[in-house]
Amino acid sequence: MKKLNKISLITMLCMGTVGFANANCVQDDVSTGWTGSLTFHCTEDTDLVKNPISFKVSNNIKVSSMWGLPGNSQFTQNGDTISVTVKKWWPDEAYIAQAGQYYTLSFSPNTNNFAISEFSVNSQDGGQEASKATIKINLPEKPQFIGTSKANVIIYKDGVKVAEMKDTAWGSSQSFEAEGNVGYTINVPAIDNATGSATPANFTTTGGQTQEVNIQYTAPKVDYKGNITISASTPDSTTKTPSYTLTDAQGNVIKEGALNFNAPTNLNDIPTSANGKQYQLTVDGYAENGFNYTAKSVSVVVKNTETTEAKVEYTKEAMPTEKVNVEVKGIPSGKSSTLTLKNDNGKIITSKLNADGISSIDVPKDGENWNITASSFDDYKVTVSPANFTANQNTQNITITFAEQQKSTQDEFITGYWENWKPAQQPQSTDMGNPAHYSTDIAPYTHVVYSFLTLAKNPNPDNPSNTTWDGSAIYESMTAGDVLKFMREYPEGTPNWERTDNWMRVRVDALIKATHDNNGKFIWAIGGWSDLQQTISTNQVDKLVSMIVDLLKISGDGVDFDWEHLHQLADGSKNPNAQQQTAVLAEVLLKLRQALDKAGLQDKQIGYTTRFNAFMADSKQYGFPGFNSDGEGLAIDNWLKAHGSSLNNVVDFVNIMAYDVGPEYMPNGQTWNMNIYKNVLSTFGAHVDSSKVVLGFEPGGQAAGGQWEGMAVDKQAIDYVANNGYGGSMFWAINQPPYNSTENTGLNSDKLAKYSQDKFSNN
Fold it and tell me: pTM for the whole thing?
């Protein structure tokens, strides 16, 4: 389902005959064995197509696969010489290795006894041709009259732009490969109204020589500008930062921002005139600890080159309070619960609940949002209604209801994926073989989906193999071993050293027990982004089904099929075997359901995880740009209906991956919002019972340029799912730490899963 991190490179536009100079790259480390690896770095940005990576291996070894480099790596072997080129995954162009960045490539040899030598990264013609020349652009140190902008230099040949230098550090130089004995023109666009120029601006290169070009900037015409320093004071210490707005006499907003009570707020470069110009500074009030704080607007005259002080003085007055009436129902005799009210600023009010009845609590009527929780105890469920409120009324009524916990019939799904290569986010024990280690992480989930079992023995997140299953085994991806051997039952007393991959087995057993102790279901996920792009052949269906049934006889409550390349390959192109791939998954789903029922395993669940466009024949009709993966679910459902069944009849749940999509591929360049969620859910609900449709979230950093829509939108979507009969919510991933972001995805998933619990339990 996920790809690993890729190295982010700063790229330079190079067109026509101008490109990067020959590489100057250095080998840093090598290792040999059953996996060979080589680490290197380059001292300048290097095109890894024009400049292939080359090295030799001894002992007549043969290399069968290669991985580790960012991008699409292709290699050839000629005798003992290995040559590697690297392109971007998309678009189809050369991968540029960034100067100073360390890279490691790894490969699989056919023996572990060999040496690596003669590393180089060189142009394919062996060196720079004599007919080539170099243009070296020298930037000055940043002039005082230029702000934070960076220089932009454009190189033209015969009136056509062939290269551009931008976002380069001031005072540095950059060289470009050029044709010899050809005329070039250098253009320097203005920055912050400062005029740019090049010396020389026009020249003819000489083959084998370097033409240096010096860039200069001329200060812009002096404008009348002045500065304002805002000195803000308030009677009490606070962390609040009220907003300010500076407007001119016509009401136009000139500046806006946030005040700082601990230091002056400086507003620079305010337009003025020779005689000065008047502005109005207005500030927002704020509320805190039962008081309202306000300040009057200030009139400010700004004079050329001068700094004018604007004093903002806040006063306070007591604010009214809101009475919160708390009614307690059903609390058992002799039991005690703690009621906690917490606002968004961290203020906490607690109260003990010992008996049924009504009590009241006063909170400041300050417009703050308050969240309400009440502790429970064994065999009882507590419901708080409403679970939050905004303190802007005179009274607020809260009902706390305690009820004996009934055995779950589990009408809703709160599904979380467990990344088997990552540790727990909230471990409750240092022993990963102890179920308590996982108890907090998996607590809010009805389904824990173990990720991944794979068809590939060695799944590759950077370059998933475009091949078909070998038919030997379903592999546990952390151990690369047969999952049936990995999970087999041992006679009591079997020593650990005789148990296959016991270091990992004890973790899986503990996770399963923790899930079952939590009345949840443990689901095996088969597939993921890294797995085989051509899954299985039609004649392998029965073998795969038999292996899955054997696995579920041993352990697990079901399987989830996460086959991500059915219609669209990893590079974005159309899968030439698209029709066969969706047909083979449909056949697996049908035969697996039949085989499980025949074996008396009717309670084992089958899930299908897919992208948001699975039931869109043409996603362009919904505002998307259109994808090769459009309609995968439709194809599966149509095959099943043609064979006397339907997707709805063979699966227990369908997970929607509504994430990992950049704004540029979303309707109107947006992130996910309620209109898009509703459209997607309706397409799924038209083909599968809504109660089986589970909406997926990734509340943090995402792959493929996806941007999280935020906690508030996710909660709105969960509300919609709960109120409209859909199956539940799904999260990638329970234990995912921050990824491409400072947001902790796992902890955010925990919050939303708990929110789902509350919403689903109230419906």
Answer: 0.51
